[in-house]
Amino acid sequence: MVVRDYxxxxxxxxxxxxxxxxxxxxxSHKEAGTLVLAPVTVTMAAYCDCGSLGRAPLTGRVRRQxxxxxxxxxxQETFLDISCTYKTVYHWKDRHGKVMRRETIPCxxxxxxxxxxxxxLTRYLSP
Length: 127
Description:
The chain is an alpha+beta fold. It has helices at residues 6-19, 44-47, 112-125; strands at 25-29, 34-37, 40-43, 48-49, 52-53, 56-57, 61-74, 77-93, 99-109. The chain has three helices and nine strands. β1 and β2 form a beta hairpin.
């Protein structure tokens, strides 16, 4: 919940995203209250948990896609929902190093991106 009107929140959100290194708006629909960020590849350890194979946790890079929904809930209140999905591709190899199988593995966000974006938005909305 953001204590600002919809239009002020929307504009501050666009500025906050523009200010984040590597983040770009792929599409925006102000009337529908939807922003879709361009997919980016990020470090798994910094943003999500992809589980483990056996006792070894998965590490490496993941693909992040985010959809942000903005909705006025009162004249000076705006609801903000940041939904990010993370996926990585794991390759099973035979003993000769040849890829035998590929599997896309969904990962769980640790909230770091969402927290960073919300923090930037709050700074833009501060008096």
